[in-house]
Amino acid sequence: MQSEGPAQPSGVEHSPTRQTVVTQRSANLIILASCVAVAGVLFKADVFTPSGVTPTIGYCIVPLLAAQTGRRSFIVGMTGLCTVLTWVVFFLELPGAPAWMSAFERSMVTGVLWFSFVLVCQRMNALSALARQAEVLAELNRELSRSNQELDAFASVASHDIRGPLATTGMFASLLASRLVGKIDPDCGEWLSLIQSEVRRMHSIVENLLKYSRFDTDRSGIEECECEAILANVLDNLRADLIASGAEVIHDPLPRVTSDPVQLMVLFQNLIGNAIKYRSEAWPKIYLSVAAEQEGWKFSVQDNGIGIDLADRERIFDLFQRGQGSHTAKGSGIGLATCKKIAELHGGRIWVESALGNGSTFYFTIAKAKKNERAKSVTA
């Protein structure tokens, strides 16, 4: 067992706290002196002002100064002191103006003085409530960050643990299929082929889920990027599918946006890939357009595919949900959920306008990055 080394004196451990206390006391003494000085000056001005209580209006400044200490008892004491000083001069006034007028004016000043006290107390209560809410919000943010980290770790571990048995199952299914060639009936061969197909499908689902879970909410990868270049990469990735389906992709001139280029590429690829996958009997035609809006950019991906039923327009953006006419095509129901998450991470949203048999138009928006976000992404 290793020794811990010499212990530090207890005074060193608490020195920051003591320093804070000393600083606070010094500030309170300065505020106390300021309040007394202001009250003294106004008292003398009230005494030497003939038949007038105008200087006493300045007493309303004292509760505002006393509020800087954050101590309600001190504020009450200073407000009470100003009230006493206001009425002391009432008995020291030289004969001249009617007494009732001076009493009325000093009553008005007293009312304003204590009204200032009430406002100060309400402001202190509001600041305390805001401080408590900020503390709760900070704690919730810390808890959310911790939860996200745990979920990311869980997704990585779970995907690793699932992929192992899947690989083993797929390997033995392939061994059985190769070993039993010509020795089993066609039905058994079809079953083995089905097992291999489902293993590959499950492996794809696990990979897509892992990618979905790793999209981070801090958008730390945002930068100025060319949508033209991103789309070119997407079309290159989908080249085999485009050739096999005979799909035609046309697009308007695309802008330069501030976003995560990897996430934006995934969004484009999912939408264009779905347009190819869920095509009708006609040759697929895909049109991508964009329009500038006050808050950002509005993109659209239009196709002439099988379309989406009205009842499915919202549901298809949830995990593992697919439209009624999409079950004939292979898919995991994760792609559009990923698109929704990416759009939301970029301050936008995604929706679809479609009807069965009439194609679909997917819209998504990307908010313009604020200056501080852009500066953060550059310095990161």
Describe, in plain words, how this protein is organized in 3D.
A five-stranded mixed sheet has the order 2-4-5-7-6. Strands 1-3 form a two-stranded antiparallel ribbon. A hairpin with a 5-residue loop joins β6 and β7. The protein is elongated. With 380 residues, it is α+β, with helices and mostly antiparallel strands. The protein is built from eleven helices and seven strands. The protein starts with 9 loop residues before the first helix and ends with a helix. α5 (99-179) packs antiparallel against α6 (186-213), α7 (227-237) packs across α9 and α9 (261-277) packs antiparallel against α10. It has three domains: 17-143, no CATH class; 153-213; 223-379, 2-Layer Sandwich (Heat Shock Protein 90).
Largest sheet: 5 strands, mixed
CATH architecture of the largest domain: 2-Layer Sandwich
Q: If you average the pLDDT, what whole number results?
A: 79
Main β-sheet, spatial strand arrangement: 2-4-5-7-6
CATH superfamily of the largest domain, by name, is Histidine kinase-like ATPase, C-terminal domain
- The first-level CATH class of the largest domain is given as Alpha Beta
β-strand amount:
5-15%
Number of strands: 7
The rough form would be described as elongated
Backbone structural class: alpha+beta
The stretches of 5 or more residues where confidence is low (pLDDT under 50) are 1-16, 371-380
Fold-level CATH name of the largest domain: Heat Shock Protein 90
* Span between termini: 42 Å
The total number of structural domains is 3
Number of helices: 11
Roughly how many Å is the radius of gyration?
37 Å
Helix and strand string, N-terminal first?
Answer: HHHHHHEHHEEHEEHEEH
Helix content: 55-70%
